[in-house]
Amino acid sequence: MSDSWTPPINPAAGTSVRPKEVDLAFWILVVWSIVGVITAVVTVSSGGMDAEMQRQMAASGASMDPGMASTVTGAASIGAVIGAVVGAVLWIFFGVMMRGGRNWARIVLTVFGAISILFNLVATFTGPTPILSVLGVLVTAAVIVLMYRPAANPYFAPRPAVG
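The chain above was modelled as a monomer; its predicted structure follows.
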């Protein structure tokens, strides 16, 4: 099966016409993805993972051998950074596809965005950085709204193949 999608063409200019809403959504997504990676690295390198683990253990009344706690925190730190990088790469990949007019990518970003909003809402009340969680909700909602603005919708409409 061939890819029959072609971008909308402006006959006068002979170029693709990408709505500014689509570009803005893409660049917000890229910047926020980079912020996520930087936040993970800063949190890990500043000892934030250790502090959060100690806070959660104190809240639950649990105790752990210091050596085991260090191992768990180290593994969680590595996992957090790897997860942030993989997540950013996925967000940006789907963003590039969305920016290219792929409606399926817009749908994937919407689903990921809705899940992200739910997680950020929970993290607003339970996580160590509620301000970042609130910003995450607002930024993700803005990206979703921009992708579905009336000016952006025709850009994602199916088109016959040119040729």
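Confidence is low (pLDDT under 50) at residues 10-15.
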